[in-house]
UniProtKB/TrEMBL annotation, chain A:
It comes from the Bacteria. It is found in: Cell membrane. The keyword Mitochondrion does not apply. This is Rod shape-determining protein MreD. Signal peptide: none annotated. Its main location: membrane. The chain crosses the membrane at residues 39-58, 70-90, 102-126, 138-159. It is a multi-pass membrane protein. It holds the Pfam family MreD. Keywords: Cell membrane, Cell shape, Membrane, Transmembrane, Transmembrane helix. Belongs to the MreD family. The keyword Transmembrane helix applies.
UniProtKB/TrEMBL annotation, chain B:
Belongs to the MreC family. It comes from the Bacteria. Residues 123-278 form the Rod shape-determining protein MreC beta-barrel core domain. InterPro entries: Cell/Rod_1, Cell/Rod_MreC_2, MreC, MreC_beta-barrel_core. Residues 79-106 form a coiled coil. Gene3D superfamilies: Rod shape-determining protein MreC, domain 1, Rod shape-determining protein MreC, domain 2, Single helix bin. Keywords: Cell shape, Coiled coil. Pfam families: MreC. This is Cell shape-determining protein MreC.
Length: 172, 300
């Protein structure tokens, strides 16, 4: 049963990101000036890496990175590369750091910042944006980090419990 | 040195960077439509998105309705004042339409570039990372949607179809920064010489000012603020005369050979729920003849 729930959860988050951008942020507040980019899928992958296993985290990073690129962006490679690499970096960082909820939340937020900056860099290289870094950090990075921090605070406990139980069920 | 090359992780990283560059190169080249595995995946997720977006739209709609109720009184007042104008406009449109038909008959011209069949579609999703402004709509090649068709809302052009699958298609917005995203447009210059048009290309988007760039305008063309910009229909794929927006500012281009105009898009490029895909219903007779001739030549 738990084996089915995990992919379902990720597919739901995958679709929810798109629906979130389409519906939730009211235009009056954010639409014109700031970009709030949900990275809920990345957050879940990183928590899976930390509380579950790094192997699963990287595997899900590859699968959903590819899916993300094909379905949403039509440029294959950007998230296919970023998702697993960030999952790997986070798994290495967590070897050094203490495993409590505040620390992990901050590490995941750091992962989101790396993801957003990485996608900015790649899009700058392939010529899909001409934003300067100063504009990028004020228009996109900071609002994005705030919205994702809210999601992390809401999701950290349920995700932690779920992934830990998932790993227990695997070892049984 | 040999130890350096034996490092497994390093080799994995290098190989994956090579694959990454190859994949990005593969998907950035100009292609007609996406490959069939991509189409299949897009259709599958489109189906899931469709089922999810229904209930969310319902909930979002409820809150919107509550907000609307608060504005009803002022809105009603304003609308009533416009109603008188409307009746007058309607009569005029009918007259003009009749005139137009008669004149067309006189010059024996069938169909026009501006005629199209609209395909109505709902937006089911949007690219979450908003570097590439792409929308997913719930109509695909089954309903006659094909790549490069114009996509409009009631307020004007919003973009074109980038790729189409059987049940869904992907729309690229005008605000998407893509060198292949160019649209032939015309500024309607009113004044002494009536009905004169100045042609240019919609190319690029100013992300900070939220304005479209109309480039390649002849240097001697006199364009003023608030003039309307429409599609020119010269590409043969887009219908003629779809409204795009209004001129905000005109500046000389980089080398002074042409001018660049900043255009405020008429349609809201952020809040999009329902769109129409403009399917050209008739090709101009000259193009049709040309096509037939080239086909015959190929056969011979």
């Amino acid at each position: 049963m738990r084996k089915v729930i995990l992919p379902l959860l990720f597919i739901l988050l995958f679709v929810f990101e798109s629906t979130f951008v389409q519906m939730v942020p009211p235009k009056e507040f954010f639409g014109g000036e700031r970009f709030l980019i949900p990275h809920f899928l990345m957050i879940a992958i990183l928590f899976l890496t930390i509380y579950g296993s790094a192997k699963y985290g990287i595997l899900y990073g590859v699968i959903f990175g590819l899916l993300f690129d094909i379905v949403y962006i039509e440029v294959i490679g950007i998230y296919l590369f970023l998702f697993p690499v960030i999952a790997y970096i986070v798994s290495q960082v967590m070897r050094v750091l203490q495993n409590n909820m505040v620390v992990t939340s901050l590490v995941v937020l750091f992962g989101v910042a790396v993801l957003e900056s990485g996608s900015y860099g790649m899009n700058l290289i392939i010529g899909r944006t001409e934003m300067t870094f100063a504009d990028f950090s004020f228009i996109r990075l900071i609002p994005t980090l705030i919205i994702n921090l809210v999601f992390i605070i809401l999701a950290v406990y349920p995700l932690k419990r779920h992934f830990e139980k998932f790993i227990e069920s695997l070892s049984e | 040195m040999p130890q350096f090359f034996l490092n497994k992780r390093l080799i994995i990283l290098l190989v994956s960077i090579i694959i990454l560059v190859a994949l990005i190169g593969f998907s950035l080249r100009e292609r007609e439509n996406v490959t069939w595995p991509e189409q299949f995946l897009k259709d599958m997720t489109g189906w899931v998105q469709n089922t999810v977006s229904g209930p969310t739209q319902y909930i979002a709609g409820f809150f919107e309705n509550v907000q609307d109720l608060q504005n009803t009184y002022t809105e009603n007042k304003e609308l009533k004042s416009r109603l008188d104008e409307l009746a007058f406009l309607e009569a005029e449109v009918q007259m003009l339409q009749k005139d137009n038909d008669e004149l067309r008959e006189v010059i024996d011209k069938e169909g026009s570039l501006s005629a199209f069949d609209p395909v109505h579609a709902a937006v089911v999703g949007r690219n979450p990372d908003r570097w590439h402004e792409l929308l997913t709509i719930n109509k695909g090649s089954r309903d006659g949607v094909e790549p490069n068709m114009a996509v409009i809302t009631s307020n004007g052009l919003i973009g074109k179809v980038k790729s189409s699958q059987t049940f869904t298609s992907t729309v690229q917005l005008l605000s998407s920064m893509d060198p292949t995203n160019r649209i032939s447009a015309a500024v309607q210059v009113s004044g002494d010489k009536k009905n004169e048009k100045v042609f240019g290309l919609i190319e690029g988007y100013d992300e900070k000012r939220k304005l479209l760039l109309l480039t390649k305008i002849p240097y001697d063309a006199k364009i003023e603020k608030d003039q309307a910009v429409v599609t020119s229909g010269l590409g043969g794929v887009f219908p003629e005369g779809l409204p795009i927006g209004k001129v905000v500012e005109v500046t000389p281009a980089e080398y002074g050979l042409t001018q660049t105009a900043y255009i405020e898009p008429g349609a809201d490029l952020y809040d999009i729920q329902h769109v129409m895909v403009a399917k050209i219903s008739s090709m101009s007779p000259e193009i049709q003849k040309e096509l037939q001739r080239s086909n015959e030549e190929e056969d011979n």
